[in-house]
Specification:
Shape: flat
Structural class: mainly alpha
Distance between the termini: 43 Å
Order of helices and strands: HHHHH
Radius of gyration: 19 Å
């Protein structure tokens, strides 16, 4: 079914989603969350409409794929990445649980699990993204043996 103005509506939605991801990604650089990933995703979406965004996506994509390949070059790197992703998951679950400040905590109480459960949710989401990227990279570069970009 062809909806009049469907192309315009799609373009507007893509632009809104792209810009929201870029702005949220910038906030994610300061706040807990996958800031760089959101910025990259926003630029990928905006690159469908803007040449300036497309020019910025290609070098990011090359560097990201090269980094993904290097991250799974050795079993030690894979193990370290998985341990950090699981540690992030554990921290996120602690933030979601949000236990009271323990008596041994030497810092001011406002520094105990700042942000509360919402921060934990972003940490858990980030850990799932990290594990997914590790699996994807491992399959692509170690199992299939693809060469990373130059």
């Amino acid at each position: 079914m062809n909806v009049p103005g469907g192309g315009t509506a799609k373009r507007i939605v893509l632009e809104i989603v792209g810009w929201v991801l870029v702005v949220a990604g910038i906030a994610g650089l300061i706040l807990p969350g996958p800031g760089l990933l959101m910025i990259a995703a926003g630029l990928v979406i905006l690159s469908q409409e803007y040449e300036w965004a497309e020019k910025r996506v290609e070098p990011i994509k090359r560097r990201a794929l090269r980094g993904a390949a290097e991250g799974v070059e050795t079993n030690l790197r894979v193990a370290i990445s998985v341990v950090f992703a699981l540690g992030l998951l554990a921290c996120g679950l602690l933030w979601i649980w949000n236990p009271p400040e323990p008596g041994w905590w030497p810092l001011p109480s406002w520094l105990w699990l700042p942000g509360g459960p919402p921060t934990g949710v972003t940490q858990v989401a980030s850990s799932f993204i990290a594990v997914g990227l590790i699996v994807w990279s491992f399959r692509r570069y170690r199992v299939r043996g693809e060469a990373p970009p130059d």
